[in-house]
Amino acid sequence: MKVKNIASDAARYIVITGLAVLFLAPLLWMLAASLSNVEEIGRARFLFLPEKADIGNYKYALTLMPFGRYFLNTCLVTALGIAGTLVSSSMAAYAFARLKVPGKNGIFILVLSTLMLPAMVTCVPQFVIFKSLGMYDTLWPLILPAFFGNALYIFLFRQFFLTIPSELEDAARLDGCSTWQVYTRILMPLSGPVAVSVMVFAFVGYWNDFMTPLIYLNSVEKRTLALGLATFSDVQGVDIVSLMAASVVTLLPVIVLFFAAQKFFVKGVVTTGLKG
Fold first, then answer.
1. Cα separation of 224 and 221, whole Å?
2. Which residues of the chain have pLDDT under 50?
3. Do 76 and 174 belong together in one domain?
4. What is the pLDDT of residue 141?
5. How many Cβ atoms are within 10 Å of 89's Cβ, its own excluded?
6. 33 and 73 housed in the same domain
7. Residue 32's closest CA among 247, 271, 238?
8. I want to staple 243 with a disulfide (CB 3.0 to 4.6 A). Which of 12, 138, 213, 232 is the partner?
9. Which one, of 192, 110, 194, lies nearest residue 151 by Cα?
10. Displacement of CA 86 from its chain's centroid (Å)
11. The domain containing residue 26 runs over which residues?
12. pTM of the model
């Protein structure tokens, strides 16, 4: 029996390791390409270890675009986007999970149905609205939609709120808490895991968003990092080495955030049940 268990565990770890290597292969290639040169990339079919690592590629890549300006723009959009997402989605989820409103289940299904709408369907009406409001070529179209909720994040918050015992809310109301106080003092402090999960999802979405800045931004100084990476492509081709170096630097905050929030992220995804 022990031999069988050891063989089963070994096979499981081999499969997991193989899948991990498969998923990490593009990242490893990108890192190797950022440290090599164009000739070496052209010779090697699979480049994972450059012959001579050149750290200067990073310095050169970051001087080809105003990296600091793009970084600040991206941080501003991401920070405000995360704040708006957490506030609006959690408040809507609280209403769907706890408030007694006629027809709220039907409205919730209608909200979830918006997940089936492709982004291209709504981008034209949104562009017309923001342009009519005089917000074209500003960062507002990248930020304001976050303050109107997101169906996926509303679903995650709602499912988590449903797992919290209603006795806590009843006790808080007996102590004189209002609906707003129940939300801010009871449910939100308990929703740390799901809030971190939503924050990670939102961070990745806003940090890597390319299409929205491409549609709304025209001025060079207002670009974000994802849009700034297009600087390395022109009519003469793509500067693959500089592009990979800039991509590695752009990807670092996402990797750091995920590992820093990994414990809460996994817990939030696991504990967000399917109740209700």
1. 9
2. 235, 273-276
3. yes
4. 95
5. 26
6. no
7. 247
8. 232
9. 110
10. 13
11. 2-54
12. 0.84
